[in-house]
Amino acid sequence: MPASTQNASSTLLGRFKAVRSATLALCRPLSPEDMMVQSCSEASPVKWHLAHTSWFFETFVLAEFLANYTQFDPNFRWLFNSYYNSLGDMPEKKLRSSFSRPPLDLILAYRAHVDSAVGHLLQHPIEDEAARRIALGIEHEQQHQELIATDIKHGLFTNPLHPACIERVESFSATTIAPPLDWVDLSPGLIEIGVTPDPASTDCFAFDNETPRHPVYVAPFRLATRLVTCAEYLAFIDQNGYNRPELWLSEGWTTVHAEGWQAPLYWHRDSETKSGWSIYTLHGMIPLEDLSETPVCHLSFFEADAYARWTGHRLPTEFEWEYAAAQFDAADRKSRRSADGSETTPRISMSANLLESGHLHPTAASHLPGLQQMYGDVWEWTSSPYTGYPGYAPLPGALGEYNGKFMSSQMVLRGGSCVTPATHIRATYRNFFSPGTRWQFSGLRLARDLK
Predict the structure, then answer these.
(1) What is the pLDDT of residues 383-392, one digit of tens each?
(2) Which residue from 62, 179, 201, 430 has the highest number of Cβ atoms inside 10 Å of its Cβ?
(3) Would you list the DSSP string of 271-332?
(4) Architecture of the 166-451 domain
């Protein structure tokens, strides 16, 4: 094997092992009973996530590229299929919590079987397409790491005991004050958005929905330097924001009344606290006053949009957000260069509140000048519908169902959250959910036109 090919396979195997291990580490605080919970239509049991991520590598990599590969269990091909209709039938999503069999031990054995086979595959020269699919599988698993955190949070919240997933060693401090809301003026003009994929590279990964790179005109605008806080959102609630139809889109107004929303998901009225509210976190219930300076999260697009209207501002478009993030990245890189001109830290600074920080909840912005919290803390709703870029083409075959078929009735979010892996997020990353979705760590940043 040429040294360059061997090094590429070794690097890919290292990434694969690291991500697979990180998934198991994320599950370590959970009991087998925890891993069976499926508490809302968007969520899946943790045990299912462990199986499905292995299914992805088995189905799209091993079955096609490893000679004489033996399936762990032929039934798993349909049992742990998520939504790939071209691959055949699958159980209804709402039934996943009924899969008491196969047991957890067998799912873990399945993971070990797949891990061993991928390791064997990467000991030899592999086709470029196999390498690209392993890279896609790694990113896919990181998406499911985030889903494990959001799904178990909802599951534990629905337990009347509201148990903590992880006991917090340090407490959230009400003395951490977010900086005053300020603005950055940006005048983009004609810019380029998205990614031009490099077919020969697995290092600079991008999903197909981030492609192709294309020109977009963006008018001058102002972007808030930080995210909206819980205290600021509480003022919206106190000013009867949920009962003012002029603030809400028609579908949002209908949804608010149909669902009985009066506050973000996980906010709980609590007469025992000074604020009258507590918020459920992965560390258990915490008084709102201890989280007042942290970014508000678990908002739907409808709530984010209504709050922006209440303030007299708006949500940014995804193109405005990506342009601002690129400026933020450039400034961050410049500030991190050593004397010889080399970068001293990774592209996404580890100071960002992402999964590796261990907070598992948004934290207050710093008092540094300029844009803050562009990555991590909460996914930021934009005003952009989720559609394909000009010239977009889904991947061939069953993998074309990964992103493209969801380009309907969804809104784009940017920036990652406090449970997004640091190596998974980038300025061009396009997350998407239906506008009524609240179980994700989603919040908002304000924007306005620059006149």
Answers:
(1) 999 999 999 9
(2) 62
(3) TTSSSSEEEEETTEEEEHHHHTTSBP-S--HHHHHHHHHHHT-BPPPHHHHHHHHHHHHHHH
(4) Alpha-Beta Complex (3.90)
